[in-house]
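Below is a filled-in request sheet from our internal design queue. Each sheet records the structural input a requester submitted and the sequence that came back. We keep these sheets so that new team members can see what a complete request looks like end to end.

REQUESTER: design group, bay 2
PRIORITY: normal
MODE: inverse folding
CHAIN LENGTH: 355
BACKBONE (tokenized):
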């Protein structure tokens, strides 16, 4: 299916006229479509129940479990799209990088990449490495019917940050030291990660994903000039690699208000916006030809319903003149969020924007 045209190639046609894909293509919609980053996760008691005792990475490699977790928020909240349940480090684990996701910490890499010799850890990703992804997406698309499935991957910069730092970081001192001090090694690292990321997205699209989202979670740590010179080429390579499939490509990062134009320039059809920049201002920064996604502050969901509705109206009003708008939070659902607040939010947006 083409992001701006008619169904093509192997892409499923059942989801083509969905509100979500119409919004991505800047077409009239019956209502503003809604989905939430981290909609499948710890905010749901049913998620905690099925994940009990199962490590995160293992849960990402069980097709039946992935299918169940991905479907849970669709059943509960009536969202307009599902997002494939996985983790950004799954493709790295699949090619043999020695890492684990430690509870309360996040991804931890046993041998961080600090030299050119360390690049040997990063071989090419093949479909056989992630056959469980193909299996799970086949199961999901059969269950979802007309509801689109969004595939996703971590962007090269964010993956590089974990690999170089050895785990989560607030300063990215080692990653930035490499970026500034050995730009050739940095460029080669990101280029290799771009190939791995593109291969991972291709597997998801060929299995039946109707759209893909590239998460550059930590790109907000960069100045625009550094992003343009040292990060944008690798992200653009990922988007170019999947362009021929014609599925909408979404690009999202946190704290990226100063980078929104550059993130759109990298090749996304839809630019995700966190809660720090109003959508009308974000549209000015991104420029014409892009849909926007976002951008309610996730913490608003802890306020009374009247406050949630008031803040939601602000988002919808700021989005009124956009070429296309997909309603989302400005970051992921927080674990302690009341699931009922999400269900009410979906219903409110649908009702408020019904055409």
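RETURNED SEQUENCE:
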């Amino acid at each position: 299916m083409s992001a701006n045209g008619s169904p093509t190639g192997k892409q499923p046609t059942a989801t083509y006229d969905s509100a979500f894909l119409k919004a991505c293509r800047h077409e009239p919609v019956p209502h503003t479509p809604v989905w939430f980053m981290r909609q499948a996760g710890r905010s749901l008691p049913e998620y905690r129940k099925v994940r009990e005792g199962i490590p995160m990475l293992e849960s990402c490699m069980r097709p039946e479990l992935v299918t169940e977790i991905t479907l849970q928020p669709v059943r509960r909240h009536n969202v307009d799209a599902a997002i494939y349940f996985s983790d950004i480090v799954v493709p790295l684990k699949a090619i043999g990088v020695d890492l684990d996701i430690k509870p309360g910490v996040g991804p931890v890499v046993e041998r961080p990449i600090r030299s050119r010799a360390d690049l040997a850890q990063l071989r090419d990703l093949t479909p056989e490495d992630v056959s469980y992804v193909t299996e799970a997406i086949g199961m999901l698309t059969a269950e979802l019917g007309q509801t689109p499935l969004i595939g996703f991957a971590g962007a090269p910069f964010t993956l590089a940050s974990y690999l170089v730092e050895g785990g989560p970081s607030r300063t990215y001192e080692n990653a930035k030291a490499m970026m500034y001090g050995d730009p050739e090694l940095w460029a080669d690292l990101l280029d290799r990660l771009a190939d791995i990321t593109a291969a991972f997205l291709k597997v998801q699209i060929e299995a039946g994903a109707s759209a893909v989202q590239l998460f550059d979670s930590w790109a907000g740590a960069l100045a625009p000039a550094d992003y343009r010179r040292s990060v944008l080429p690798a992200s653009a390579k990922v988007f170019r690699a999947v362009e021929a499939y014609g599925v909408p490509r979404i690009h999202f990062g946190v704290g990226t208000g100063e980078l929104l134009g550059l993130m759109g320039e990298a090749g996304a059809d839809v630019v995700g916006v966190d809660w720090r920049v109003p959508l009308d201002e974000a549209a000015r920064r991104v420029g014409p030809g892009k849909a926007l996604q976002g951008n309610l502050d996730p913490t608003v969901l802890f306020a009374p319903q009247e406050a949630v509705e008031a803040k939601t109206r602000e988002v919808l009003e700021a989005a009124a003149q956009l070429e296309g708008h997909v309603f989302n939070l400005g970051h992921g659902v927080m674990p302690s969020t009341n699931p009922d607040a999400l269900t009410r939010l979906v219903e409110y947006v649908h009702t408020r924007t019904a055409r």
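SHEET NOTES:
- The first strand starts at residue 82 and ends at 83.
- DSSP finds 15 helices and nine strands in the chain.
FILED BY: M.R.
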